[in-house]
Amino acid sequence: MLLLSGGAAVAMVLTDTGGGPVADGANLVIPSREPLGNPSAQDTTDPAAGQAGQDAAGQAVQDPTGQAVQDSAGPAGRGPVAVGEAVALAGRTPGLRMSVTVNQVVAAATPASDLLKPKAGAKLVAVEVTLANTSQAVYGDAPSNGAWLIDTQGQQYRSTVYTVREGQSFGGSATINAGDSRKGMIVFEVPEGAVPAKFQFALDSGFAEQKGEWTLS
């Protein structure tokens, strides 16, 4: 603003000090243990209808058995879904894509060995998972490394080396060729009073960006 006073010109600069929002160029940081869905990024159909879902590119998403799966769009993944439903997850290898299904949950599993038992006051929870390779890339990993169990109190648990009588484990690592699948139990040690609420899974020992989530209770 320019003011004239006694022949002298006085310039005044007005500065906006309002507290309006400022765009931040920082990258989005995805929580490592709380997947967030992005339903608008893809068009999926009801698995009960027996139709294939679609990924973000509009392509049909099916596992090798022809079962429709829910696509995991974006870095945060997709979920939660129910036990028995499949979620399509991408790995770190370009083009790698897996259909992951939680088949069943054993809330109080029986140790397979008398030498490997949970400590006093704890129990074993086993989650049976099927991994189906829906891409042309070969997938190699130790599947149990990418799994987490969350109870109703929000406590999170990593998988253990225990095996149970209710089903076979993955036996450590797994190599899954295109069109092939593997099934195995992932076992967790939790307090006896803990109630399983959620199961989360990511490819590449948990380092892949996309994470699927299943509701257990």
What are the main properties of this structure?
single chain; 217 residues; mainly beta; Immunoglobulin-like; 5-stranded mixed β-sheet; 16 strands; disordered N terminus; DUF4352; signal
Short description:
Residues 25-77 are annotated as: Disordered. By secondary structure, the chain is an all-beta fold.
Major sheet: order of its strands? 5-7-8-9-14
Number of strands: 16
Averaged pLDDT? 76
What is the H/E order? EEEEEEEEEEEEEEEE
Question: What structural class do helix, strand and pairing data support?
Answer: mainly beta
**Biggest sheet statistics:** 5 strands, mixed
Please give the radius of gyration in angstroms. Answer: 25 Å
User: In the CATH classification, which architecture applies?
Assistant: Sandwich
Helicity level: under 10%
What does the oligomeric state look like here? single chain
Helical segment tally?
A: 0
Question: Any low-confidence stretches, pLDDT <50, length ≥5?
Answer: 1-76
Q: Please tell me the total number of domains.
A: 1
Which term fits the overall shape?
globular
Protein name: DUF4352 domain-containing protein
Organism: Nonomuraea maheshkhaliensis
InterPro entries: DUF4352, Immunoprotect_excell_Ig-like
Keywords: Signal
Topology:
Elements: E1 2-5, E2 8-11, E3 53-54, E4 60-61, E5 70-71, E6 78-82, E7 86-90, E8 97-109, E9 122-133, E10 139-141, E11 147-151, E12 156-158, E13 174-176, E14 181-191, E15 196-201, E16 212-215
Parallel strand pairs: 5-7, 6-16
Antiparallel strand pairs: 1-2, 3-4, 7-8, 8-9, 9-14, 10-13, 11-12, 11-15, 15-16
